Amino acid sequence: MKKLFTSLLVLGMMVPFGASAQLQLKAEAPANPDNEPVPVHPVPHPRQLKWQETEFYAFYHYGMNTYTGEEWGMGNEDPKRFAPTAAPNPRQWLEVAKEAGMRGGIAVVKHHDGFCQWPTETTDHNVTKSGNDFGRNTNIPRDFAKAAQELDMKYGFYISPWDRNSVHYGTDKYVKDVFLRQCAELAQYGTDQFEMWFDGANGGNGYYGGRNTTISVDRATYYDVPNLRDSIHKVCPDCVMWGVGGEARWIGNEAGWAGQTNWSPENRDYAPESNGMYGTENGWFWLPGESDAKATNRGWFYHDGESPLTPERLFQMYLETVGRNSTLILNIPPNKAGVLPDASVNSLKGMGNLIRERLTNDFAKSAKVEVSETRNAGAARNYEANNMIDGNKDTYWATNDGTTEAVITLTWDEAKIIRYVELMEYIAKGQRVKKFTVETTQDGVNWTRRATGVETTTVGYKRIIPLNSSTANSYGDGFEVMGVRIKIEDSKACPLISKVSVY
Ligand code: FUL
Among 331, 358, 385, which residue terminates a domain? Predict the structure, then answer.
């Protein structure tokens, strides 16, 4: 080491650091050959970018509570009560999700009751001690990961840091020998996990190995999160650690909506229930929102007599989350046979159909696209308007530095009936747009403002604007138009738009 340091020092003394040498260097290597816009910080880590692209995915609450009827088991449940009436079928869970237009799913493999749905060395409270062979042979993370890989769906696990069963909860031993090891064990089922879900986990009352007491912890320090995050990222490099892990933020409600104004930047000390929906324009960290919501009316876990929400209500949730720069993780609880019940399957199918019918036939692709200004091209990259309709997420239209107001105009030779305008920013270089309007024309001369009841402020990764201003009844009759005009009225720096769609 010492030798290396000495040689670096000698080398440094030999290199001429005079002004002329610096000038020469500059001339030979232009700093920005592609004329790329400078980032507006904070910007997403590449793993957060990939995560955001997942957009819409399923949540599966299945476990001991499915059989006890609880939502939060105490941790004293006899493992024999876990007795599926058939072999649990995670493949069916994911097939339904795929048909609904989702790109992945997260399976609960351990909830607050501490019952682990895989054979773990960290506790006896696991499936190997369950009440029948269907239970004993079950390994949810193994079967879930395999099915996801086969179906080309992203996958991840919910593993509760709070463990109401463990006698060690509240001690260092629990963190090191139980919780961290459980997270590590899950990596054996796949290292391409896209998200690990840790709920808010401050402890509380529980069984705790028979102590029947209350143990509170400070979740900010107790779970050794920095070490946990580093260890997980070493084995699962694309795994975003949600909640306690701090790489994506809770949207602040469980009702399936994000703020119309929704910034991905946020500060670490934000109050989720009041600010989770909106983010903070000049927040220090890239902490994009995830909205967790239920597709059924009773609870996160399956309950006899439950019924699913209607496809139309689920479509509204989609518009109010994915359409507002948030991801949507939609919970569908498997039943006692370890499958999604028919009623949920049908509702989810219906939702998938609505998404396909309403948000697939993109008229922008056949439009003439004009812009008020186009950034000067660089050596290997241009910023042309057509980059917004080329289907390539890595290209974008941009203005020159300093231009923060701009107009995008799409026109057609024949009239179209339209209902939605979708915009996506190229967020790898930061979220920028602060204010815009949407107008339509029937004659190419007179323009009428649409979506006047919508806050047309932020865009972010994706924004879907219902032109009639209603997310509950967004479809309606639609508007007959020959053109659409989007006016960007304010932006933190030159706007970078990677996609514009009109449906
Ligand atoms: C919460 C938990 O307490 C609920 O039971 C559920 O799992 C929800 C998704 O997260 O923090």
Answer: 358
Residue 30 Cβ inside 6 Å of ligand 1? The answer reads no
Q: Is the CB of residue 204 below 6 angstroms from any atom belonging to ligand 1?
A: no
Average pLDDT, the chain: 94
Atom of ligand 1 nearest to the CA of 199: 11
Name which residue sits closest to atom 4 of ligand 1, judged by CA.
300
Asked whether residue 31 is assigned to any structural domain, the reply reads no
Tens-digit pLDDT profile for residues 236-246: 999 999 988 88
Buried b (16+ CB within 10 A) or exposed e, 59-85: bbbbbbbbbbebebbbbbbebeebebe
Q: What is the pLDDT of residues 416-455, one digit of tens each?
A: 999 999 999 999 999 999 999 999 999 999 999 999 999 9
Burial degree of 337 (CB within 10 A; 0-12, 13-18, 19+): middle
**Whole-structure pTM over 0.70, yes or no?**
yes
Is the pLDDT assigned to residue 25 strictly greater than 70?
Answer: no
Substitution site in 162, 199, 291 for ligand 1 pocket (most atoms within 8 Å of beta carbon): 199
Q: Are 129 and 263 found together in one domain?
A: yes
State if residue 163 touches ligand 1 by the CB under 6 angstroms criterion: no
